[in-house]
Amino acid sequence: MRIISWNVNGVRAWQKKGCIDWLTNESPDFFCIQETKAHPKQLSDQLKSPEGYISYFDHSKGRKGYSGVATYLKSKFENRVLKIEYGLGVDDLDQEGRLISVYLKDFVLINCYFPNGGSGPERLKYKLKFYDVFLKYVERIRKSGHAVIFCGDVNTAHKEIDLARPKENEKNTGFLPVERAWLDKVVTFGYIDTFRYFHPNQRNIYTYWDMKTFARDRNVGWRIDYFFISPDLKNSLKSCFILDSILGSDHCPLGIDITPD
Prior knowledge:
Order of helices and strands: EHHEHEEEEEHEHEHEHEEEE
CATH superfamily: Endonuclease/exonuclease/phosphatase
Number of domains: 1
């Protein structure tokens, strides 16, 4: 079973770049996208229901053209879906359409677009609150007996190895000690960073590059997109990969192969 995640930075622009053909060719069983920047009513039928897939969307309830997530799954898995949840259940954190949880027999797949901490201290405070509530949310699911996979744009690089210029970014959001400490906590709770599980020392591989400075051409990037799994799925995890040669956004796709019991 292959699951791929991608911050597409605008799903309508992503479609215009021919990326639906990429999805058709790659053919993952589950496809999680972040930063859709659209209400489902604004999307073509091809985007809402690519051939062979069903989809679930969450969108920003206020600001238009902002945030949003979508989860696609192959139609053959539709009868395995137990339920769908949107948001964290906290009103002020759910207005931006940042989370979809798909409950399946084998695991709960959580697709999340975590807030960016830029634009001042209030936004950083919002991001940290979202982090804390999110971890409580996934722990509640896990303690109810479900295995958990969560993926998406976390908007923080965890370790120095996870970005090209750590020293220059020590005081910038996305690499602040308080943000990184939350990722430490996630790992302490037992969740496995699937990429580092297979590639603990690999450098110079990232998932995001600043487009304004043409950073991708120089590979001056950040690894801020992740797949985490609960430890009960460890033996089912077969691979994790970052498709950093795939264009279409300022982020690239990443994925895992997993064979649940």
